Amino acid sequence: MQYNLAAEKMPTAWFNALPRMPEPLKPPLHPGTKEPVGPDDLAPLFPMALIEQEMSASPYIDIPGEVLDVLRLWRPTPLRRAIRLEQALGTTARIYYKDESVSPAGSHKPNTAVPQAYYNSKEGIKRLTTETGAGQWGTALSFACAQYGIDAKVYMVRNSFEAKPYRKIIMETWGAECVPSPVDDPSSPGSLGMAISDAVRDAVSRDDTHYALGSVLNHVLLHQTIIGLEAREQLAMAGEKRPDVVIAPCGGGSNLGGVALPFMEDKEVRLLAVEPLSCPTLTQGTYGYDFGDTAGMTPMMEMYTLGADFMPPTIHAGGLRYHGDAPIISSLVHSGRMEAIAYPQSKTFEAAALFAKVEGRLPAPECGHSIRGAIDEAMAAKEAGDDRVILFNYCGHGFLDLAAYDDYNQGRMIDA
Amino acid sequence: MQYNLAAEKMPTAWFNALPRMPEPLKPPLHPGTKEPVGPDDLAPLFPMALIEQEMSASPYIDIPGEVLDVLRLWRPTPLRRAIRLEQALGTTARIYYKDESVSPAGSHKPNTAVPQAYYNSKEGIKRLTTETGAGQWGTALSFACAQYGIDAKVYMVRNSFEAKPYRKIIMETWGAECVPSPVDDPSSPGSLGMAISDAVRDAVSRDDTHYALGSVLNHVLLHQTIIGLEAREQLAMAGEKRPDVVIAPCGGGSNLGGVALPFMEDKEVRLLAVEPLSCPTLTQGTYGYDFGDTAGMTPMMEMYTLGADFMPPTIHAGGLRYHGDAPIISSLVHSGRMEAIAYPQSKTFEAAALFAKVEGRLPAPECGHSIRGAIDEAMAAKEAGDDRVILFNYCGHGFLDLAAYDDYNQGRMIDA
Known about the structure:
Two copies of one chain form a homodimer. Chain A has about 425 residues and is of the alpha/beta class. Helix content of chain A is about 40%, strand content about 20%. Chain A has 17 helices and 15 strands. Chain A has helices at about 40, 50-55, 65-70, 85-90, 110-120, 135-150, 160-165, 165-175, 190-205, 220-225, 225-235, 255-260, 280-285, 325-335, 345-360, 365-385, 400-410, and strands at about 1-5, 15, 60, 80, 95-100, 125-130, 150-155, 175-180, 210, 245-250, 270-275, 285-290, 300-305, 340-345, 390-395. The interface between A and B is large, with 50 and 50 residues.
């Protein structure tokens, strides 16, 4: 059962978490001087509009008309009630999911790729660089750059580049260039941290080029809040006053922030981050300043981290293998406003396969984490006999992750 | 810009073309006796409810509640106006597309797979067999069988089975079995006609088993009319009185019938079939009785055909390689109510790639035919200076057809 928002009801302003944080965020520090960075330090990488959003105290920030025009290619996205999943579980809970898989790139990533490409093109930038792991973010940015007529160059973690050629083909169809990273060592399998270093190095070397990051930063989470803002309206359409718990997978934190932040001020709403046990940043990391990349070129941010040189095992949910987490998410967990839980990947695929069978949709492995969390909440509701309202983010489809499903179906999946 | 129908506005009855045909259809003939077949001849293959629908004279046929429950997993589907495509073409036309790619299987096919699985399970059938080419229909039937707890066995054309393992993995995730066809000759690349023979042979050999066909038959087109019925409501939401032309790709004819038939009685609406030049059934075939399969086991139907032993060249739009066409579609073309046009695949990929760039979505190769037709209509409108309203069916996404896009991007695509 789906709840569709009319096109004219699509939100026209983003929800800014910064002025509402229980504990104010500490400033990012310059990687060399360890002093707080100012707008000028960030200007070689980002347009001024995004730097302002990164530090803004406005409660809401208007979405430009030319961004709304592109978001309307797929937004508003459906909210669906997973009635058949509820029946399969025999739960007293009501389970809703926000379907971000209907975007051109098949995930929530275009929600921020589009405004990032827009603001850069508006300030005269002709070319963006970025990194990508499994390829979700790279495809999203390629799509967004095509909409505003600017070039995209994507540094893709080498082992994904070689093992998963499909997302590269999508990027090329949208006109982008995609190369394996690290560029200077063809024998290295690469990592997200290394690819960030490659993309940043390229961006600072050319005046016409900026860098774009697909998660972690405040402005990225800001752009993703359209997910939760829409979901809030759609839950009301479904006759729900509020969700009791909002759940999303957490890699860098952008899809989690997107669905959860608009509910942060309602104390009756629990917020739940789900991460892989093999990269347990929020549940086992240290809270403190760390670099965002491997080479130490990015500003240092206060966050939960496993260490900038942490090399997570290869798991199928490539989007959840980041050593750190968004400062906003980290702070909410640190202050106790948000909960976090970690699962081994076999448990997340078990949930994804059940979901595929009863609800029909094939989730991305990242999304399997969301579903695992939602199922366990629904079972807890059944045990307690309450009619909990569960909202989770369906952040992407699994049509490009079928080898992982084959491993699971054939009993070959291992927990790293 | 999308026009979403509220869940409660989803049609609850299918539109039956049979009593409205300009020329009545001739009956199917028994492959052995060449006499008209009756319900009893079809009973080894199909449940009585579908046999009745195959010959029904009712103007509308109610959709059972248990079928509506499953369709609601993804329906109503969005109608979108392709404003950015219009702008790219500089056309005076308004272009709308009905997005059937949002279904669990990624195409329009589940619209009929679901009622077929339902009616069979209702009549006590425990197992369905079918054939599949590139895999769209096999995945759809696997999904549908999982919803009603019956088994599915899919005979997949061997060269697709070997070259495209992904759809098999999806079928297995939904619990189905998928084997290469022909089963008795591992050296043959196979064909859709051969796979039909394999599936029919299996079905007639077991009492608990029926056969399911994904296109061509009257009841299949009937189930697909929900596409056009929804689109009609959504065009009204967009302020359009009617489309001037309705366009869809034509393989067996089911997605074309689905979007076009509900408009057949409005003489001001042109209906346009688009087929590949390498399998030009409607534009170069013969109109007359022919078999549906290679082995001559299926009833003979009056239709446009290239001959049951026609072996089309391997093209990327695997769903459009059938030697025949639905009797309903064939008759509409024969009577002059429907137009048909054929394109080489390079022209359809050119259209698909443009669409992907400006509208963001990556179409299935079959769908590229629709888009080619829509673009050429839009250019004709620009030349004529009229404000033509164009509706086309976006019958599936291309996330599992990326090798074809790679061929196109790298200049390796050839016209067979």
